[in-house]
Design a protein that fits this description.
This is Glycine/D-amino acid oxidase-like deaminating enzyme. Keywords: Oxidoreductase. GO terms for molecular function: oxidoreductase activity. InterPro entries: FAD-dep_OxRdtase, FAD/NAD-bd_sf. One of its GO terms (cellular component) is cytoplasm. The model has no long low-confidence stretch (mean pLDDT 96). Helix 2 runs parallel beside helix 8 and helix 5 packs across helix 11. 33% of the residues lie in helices and 22% in strands. The strands form three sheets. Strands 1, 5, 6, 7, 8, 14, 15, 16, 17 and 18 form a ten-stranded mixed beta sheet that branches. It is α/β, with parallel strands linked by helices and 458 residues long. Among the domains are: 177 residues, FAD/NAD(P)-binding domain (3-Layer(bba) Sandwich); 44 residues.
Length: 458
């Protein structure tokens, strides 16, 4: 089994890419973007489409798609993973509804761009299936469904199915029912980010790789290779933001890891089903996420060991043995049929988590520095909305996107260490304890999870 090598998704396309040239020295630009992941690339794409004359430079420490954009679970969901109520502090109820609708629209927008630019990312339109594997999970999912309906989510977008129908879709052990969300898609993440990088280059954007940013301030980005002076600077570093000077407490880099099986036999797939290629999650507090890949593997992800002290990040995607053990246990619990299947690859990455667990996008008019991130795990679709919004903000357009309640929203920083480490690890330990309690026959909802969420502001 391989561990690391950035992610399995690169192995799937023949290995890690060669790096583009580094910044050759000092230069100027109209817009300098730090980070060549989905956020930075989408921002460059929409800016160039709106104003082809802009001189746009992207600086990347490793290579385009090295971070979460090339390591994620491949969920193009358009999902709203944050508290709607928290966004009411910076917007109205109608504004939050508009943000939800804008998020849902990202799925078709990403597919449209991929078709227009000839990007083959193994995209399959499908449903999201959030399955309950205990009575308590099923009760929680039904409450979540009611909450979605209370926010006027259309009936054609979400519905509940019982155990029999859920099992007919995907034969998950002990399934009690599921919530189905329509209009999502499965993607191959590395194919998407590499294709997008090629598309922005064809538009005239310059991507410098192997160029580590060491500082940014009004009008100036400093790197180990030289400086870039630009009136607009976009920080598109998401889970790696804590590594920039002065930003160690802005967004917490939360670990997320995955394993992938060998290609399963046709006999196994007949037992499991999954013919609709749904993106799959469960109703646990320490939840998992999964997809059936193009070549018939199961990619299973979850948090594992959630956070490294001091906001440290992994080395080339290598994850801990304990994380691999936990993910394999989840895989076998949901799909006992796979116990004889080989695990081919394991890897991890980081996602950005703000103190209130709600994503933001913005541009400071005084400094010209913009940002987007804090996606909390739904960055494949959210980054597209970020890119379109940042493009409008940079071009000083007053649009429906620039008026959404996540724009220019200020969030307090995370606590210093060791409080940060203690808080996150305590939260996930309590989540795991709550899941074990709720799995017992006749158990009710555990209060431990509520305490964990209150502890960390989740």
């Amino acid at each position: 089994m391989r561990n690391g090598d950035v992610s399995f998704w690169y192995r799937d396309i023949g290995g890690l890419p060669g790096k583009r040239p580094a910044l050759p020295g000092d230069r100027t630009a109209d817009v300098c973007i730090v980070g060549a992941g989905y956020t930075g690339l989408w921002t460059a794409y929409y800016l160039k489409k709106a104003d082809p004359g802009l001189d746009i430079v992207i600086l990347e420490r490793e290579f385009a798609g090295f971070g979460a954009s090339g390591r994620n679970g491949g969920w193009l969901s358009g999902g709203f993973a944050w508290s709607r109520e928290k966004y009411l502090s910076t917007g109205s109820r109608d504004g939050v509804r508009e943000m939800v609708a804008a998020m849902m629209g990202t799925v078709e927008e990403v597919i449209r761009v991929c078709e227009a630019e000839g990007i083959d990312a193994d995209i399959v339109r499908t449903d999201e299936m959030r399955a309950a594997t205990s009575a308590v999970q099923w009760e929680r999912i039904q409450k979540d469904f009611a909450a979605e309906k209370a926010w006027d989510v259309p009936a054609e977008d979400i519905h509940l199915i019982g155990a029999e129908e859920a099992r007919a879709r995907i034969n998950i052990a002990n399934v009690h029912g599921a919530m189905i969300t329509r209009g999502v898609a499965r993607v191959q993440p590395a194919k998407l980010v590499r294709g997008l990088a090629g598309a922005v280059e064809r538009l005239g954007v310059t991507i410098y790789e192997d160029t580590a940013v060491t500082g940014l301030e009004k009008g100036l980005v400093t790197t180990a290779r030289g400086t870039v002076r630009a009136p607009v600077i976009i920080r598109a570093t998401e889970g790696f933001t804590a590594g920039l000077p002065g930003l160690s407490r802005t967004w917490l880099p939360l670990n997320s890891a995955q394993i992938v099986t060998e290609p399963l036999s046709e006999a196994l797939w007949r037992e499991i089903g999954w013919n609709g290629h749904e993106i799959l999650g469960d109703g646990a507090h320490a939840y998992c996420y999964a997809q059936r890949t193009r070549e018939g593997r199961i990619a299973m992800g979850g948090r594992g060991v959630p956070y490294r002290f001091g906001s440290q990040t992994d080395v080339n995607g290598q994850t801990q043995p304990e994380t691999i053990r936990q993910l394999t246990e989840i895989l076998h619990r949901h799909f006992p049929q796979t116990k004889g299947a080989r695990i081919d690859h394991a890897w991890c990455g980081v996602l950005g988590v703000p103190r209130d667990w709600c994503a933001t996008v913005g541009l400071d008019p005084d400094t010209g520095i913009g940002w987007a991130g804090g996606y909390v795990g739904v960055g494949v679709s959210t980054s597209n909305l970020s890119g379109r919004t940042l493009s409008d903000l940079v071009l000083r357009k007053d649009t429906a996107l620039t008026r959404l309640p996540w724009v220019n929203r200020k969030v307090r920083p995370w606590e210093p260490e060791p409080l940060r480490w203690l808080g996150v690890h305590t939260m996930y330990r309590l989540f795991h304890m709550a899941d074990r309690q709720e799995a017992r026959p006749g158990a009710g909802p555990s209060g431990l999870a509520r305490f964990a969420n209150a502890l960390t502001g989740r």
